[in-house]
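Weekly structure sync, notes
Attendees: PL (lead), two postdocs, one rotation student
Agenda item 3: pending single-chain targets
PL asked that the sequence for the first pending target be pasted directly into the notes so everyone works from the same version. It is reproduced below exactly as submitted, 370 residues in total.
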Amino acid sequence: MDDVAQRLNEVWQKLHAIPEPAFQEVKTAAYLAAALKKAGYMVKEQVAGTGVVGVLDSGSPGPVAALRTDMDCLLFKQPDGTMRGIHACGHDAHMAMVLVAAERLAAAGISRGKVKIICQPAEEIGQGALAMMKAGALDEVDYLFGQHVMPLTMAKSGEIIPCVQWTACTLISAVLTGRAAHASQPHLGISALDAGTAVVNAVNALHTDPLLGGSVKTTKFQSGTTLNIIPAKAELGFDLRSTSNSEMEQLRARVIATVQAVAAAYGVQAETRIEGTCPASEYDQVLVDLARAGIKEEVGEEGLLPVRSTTVGEDFNFYPLQLPKLKTAFLGLGCDLGPGLHDPEMHFKHEDMVHGCNVLVRLIEKALAL
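Predicted structure, written out during the meeting:
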């Protein structure tokens, strides 16, 4: 295990030092591809731009079991105005655990089927999973596992969640266009600001099923540049969340319809746009049970946590939604992570990567035996 821990830290340090944002993971992809080739995988590069896919083929019939890792970093604005890439969501840890698991599987050998390693770009902007599927990276995969380091509020060191229930989320922007006028003659204009205020109140008044964890929040409202001018333009933004994919579809339609109806009542034009969306989790119970067994073997009954839900989105959930025959499970690794994900000061207990890596190896071995 000391060798595993050493290798995990070696990989983590390398990847942590070369953070790259969505669809720009060039150095990251090159490092992963080279390591997979060295381990004995057939490797395809530049999948969906910067994605990498490694295949370990036993030569015997059997299922295709895959591990997925995200690769991109987050960008943070610095005091001097420049943007700095930081792996503040743990993707460097995810890559380290998946790569080392892949190396161990290749070294031990597999007796049937194939192992696929999916190194996916652009998770942070919710576009990577869709791009990888469009490129055919998941076409032959039967079983797919994902894993994320979790904040201390959800799991601590030595604990692993067998099933993280991610929330469906949608970001919607709206631009309202009226007619400008001097404030001394407001009757000659159509105030986009007034219309925007009414839109915000109407959208905030939408009610959702509390059992499904639905919510709509106005997150942006900008209008006006001069104190004595009736503004002709207003820009709005909305954040939608739900634990149900079907409710999210309805909620999305209701928000757009509300914006359009209220804007029309005020005589302004309204253009809405879906800026991003991620579906809620839909997992296969067989793989979730498999994950429970693998976790119990690694950290014992006391380290096996129940299913946990979060209000955060994860684009891994596009995979089972778009590929209904694909069976998936997604684990949450406790590692005393603080102060939180997407915080530039995020840190975690590196020793727990050994637990995460061990469980991934076990899950692939168990899935290939199904």
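Discussion points:
- The chain has two domains: 2-166+281-368, 168-278.
- The first helix runs from residue 2 to 16.
Action: rotation student to compare against the earlier draft before next sync.
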